[in-house]
Amino acid sequence: MLSCRKTTQLISESFERKLSLLEKLAVRMHLLVCRLCPRFRSQILFIENAMRQMRSSEKETEILEGSDRPALSPEAVERIRSSIRERLQH
Amino acid sequence: MPANRHAGAVEEGINPETWLEEHGDFLFRYAWSRLRDRYSAEDLVQDTLLAAIDMRRGFQGRSSLRTWLLGILRHKIIDYMRRKAREVPIEDESIFDQISERFFDARGEWLVKPLEWKDDPSRIIERKEFWDVLMRCLAELPENMANTFVLRELEELDSQEICKALRITSTNLGALLYRARLRLRRCLEMNWFV
Known about the structure:
The structure holds 2 protein chains of 2 kinds. Chain A is mainly α. Helices cover 73% and strands 0% of the residues of chain A. Chain A is elongated. The termini of chain A are far apart. Chain B is mostly helical.
């Protein structure tokens, strides 16, 4: 039987690579008898899902365009503006 | 003259003087969400705009100007993370053992047990404060670990691309992402769900 550590490690890896049949079976077996690892799994899935939503709402610019979002500091704007001017003169 | 005015309007698209005003904050927020550091993000906005000026003849107008600038910024972000990975060498594969110290006992059983999350996650995602917590949790990870996670989850690079960009092995990548997920899960639990 896999340990919880090994099980969660394989669950994490399954996002990057296809698990072997044996690994999949071992994970499934462990999830059947463990109370905590299924929780870990669904919470990790939630985080994946949240990141996906973050990416897609970026495309709709909700996150990037809100008025209370951080903006360039006035100093940075000044610095960048003068570096642009300088570059354009060359 | 009307002809001139028309030419002026076309030129406007590649008038770099207006780029900062029109796209600066957008680029900044994007960079900030990837790097979690204001100063580095501001530097990358500057690098991006200067690089765009040098390359402006290559801009075909096939995509929007903003999309084009964003493409340049995304390359700059990966370059930045590559430099960081070289400055602070990413830990070797023994980090698997360090994980067990924190979250699991010697037999590999949970020490810091995952709790039940009370809120309904599907609703939470719509709330702005949740994103702030998520960003703060990301910022608490060691830098290379957070960068790896960002490349994977926000920049959507595949494993091979990340390994190449950061010059790490796929075992290392797996270990870093595993640790990032363990810690993020715990951080969200502490700061949001329980």
